[in-house]
Every structure is written in structure tokens, then in C-alpha cells.
Amino acid sequence: MKTFIVGISGVTNGGKTTLAKNLQKHLPNCSVISQDDFFKPESEIETDKNGFLQYDVLEALNMEKMMSAISCWMESARRSVVSTDRESAEEIPILIIEGFLLFNYNTRVYEPPDSPGYFDGHVWPMYLKHRQEMQDITWEVVYLDGTKSEEDLFLQVYEDLIQELAKQKCLQVTA
Fold first, then answer.
1. Which contiguous run of DSSP H or E holds residue 9?
2. By the 8 A CB rule, do 93 and 3 touch?
3. Mean pLDDT (whole number) for 112-119
4. Which pTM value belongs to this model?
5. To the nearest whole percent, how much of the chain has pLDDT over 70?
6. Which among 141, 142, 150, 129 is positioned nearest to 11, based on CA atoms?
7. Helix (H) or strand (E) run with residue 6 in it
8. Is 36 a catalytic residue?
9. How far apart are CA 23 and CA 150, in angstroms?
10. Is the pLDDT of residue 77 over 50?
11. Is the pLDDT higher at 24 or at 121?
């Protein structure tokens, strides 16, 4: 049984969830697992010297629970579809995993808003640190230009996924 797993990672508040949900709407048999669903309770999150809760570190996440959810999806995908010689698009399970620290084991408005200096003083430096760690890994990674529109980013990723699936002789789609 073939499955297709896509990871979307990037800076906090960078549009990962929006992109994942848009892809899910357009791809057949697609599920999304969001790293945001696996934060530990606030009482377990450390605070930095400026008083900011440290959500942008791996220790703020229950990664074991997230990995368990991914394993459950994979097992379910194996059981849910009987493999054939030529699988159709609807038969190939696709999982999109999105989050800010996936590869390390436009602006939205948050209510309440972040404290002044939080993004520049914590979120961005942590993103750069974790991105460097990711760049040191030899996986095939496609970097997106965050200055492009939401629609342009969606189209780029969607077309790349369709091409990759077609390369694997898994999917024949007319867009």
C-alpha cells in the first residue's frame, strides 16, 4: 500500500496551517496533523528571562503523542485500502504534517496579541536556530518564499505534490 506524507514547517504565524488546510481541500484522501495540537499544558511550559512562555522550543511539545498520532494514521491507512496494481487518486492516502519544528524531532491577528518584542526577541531567533538545524539534515526540502501570496504558495505546493505523485506513478490528475 502506497502512502504519501508531506511536511510543512516554518516560522510561527507563517501560514503553515492555512496552506495545509487548503491542500487538504483539494487533494483526495488527505489528512492533516498539526503540531499545534500537541503543546503541553501551559503549566508545563518554561518561561524565559523576559517572562515569555517558551512555546517555540521542542520541549513545549508532546512529540511522543504526535508521533503516536502519525503512527496511528499510517496503520489506519494500511488497513483502510486494499492495494491494487493501479491505484487511483482516491485510494492513495496523503498525510500532511504541519508545524514549526517538524524536522527537528501574510499576517494573522492573534487574540490576545503577542506581547511587544515577543516575535523579534523570541519567535524569530528560535525559528532561525531550528531552521539551521534542519538545513544540516540531508532531506529533500523545498523552501517557499513567504513574501508570495497565499494563493501563489498554494499553487506552487499543490503542483509540486501532483508532479511528485505522478512521478511515483501513483496519481493521474488533470488540474
1. strand 4-9
2. yes
3. 71
4. 0.65
5. 78
6. 129
7. strand 4-9
8. yes
9. 12
10. yes
11. 24
Instruction: Name the residue with cell 516575535.
Output: 119
Q: Are 3 and 92 in contact (CB under 8 A)?
A: yes
Contact 173, 89 (CB under 8 A): yes
Q: Which residue do the cell numbers 512521478 mark?
A: 167
Query: Could you write out the DSSP letters of every residue in 48-115?
Result: -TTS-B--SSGGGB-HHHHHHHHHHHHHHHHHHS---SS--GGGS-EEEEEETTTT-------SSPPP
Identify the sign of the CA torsion 32, 154, 103, 131: negative
Strand-by-strand arrangement of the 94-99 sheet: 4-9, 94-99, 30-34
Of 5 and 124, which is predicted with more confidence?
Answer: 5
Helix (H), strand (E), coil (C) string for 109-165: CCCCCCCCCHHHHHHHHHHHHHHHHHHCCCCCCCCCCCCCCHHHHHHHHHHHHHHHH
Contact between 79 and 73 under an 8 Å Cβ cutoff? The reply is no
Please state whether beta strands 30-34 and 94-99 pair in parallel, antiparallel, or not at all (unpaired). Answer: parallel
Grid cell of 63 as nine digits: 512529540
What pLDDT is stored for residue 129 in this prediction? 79
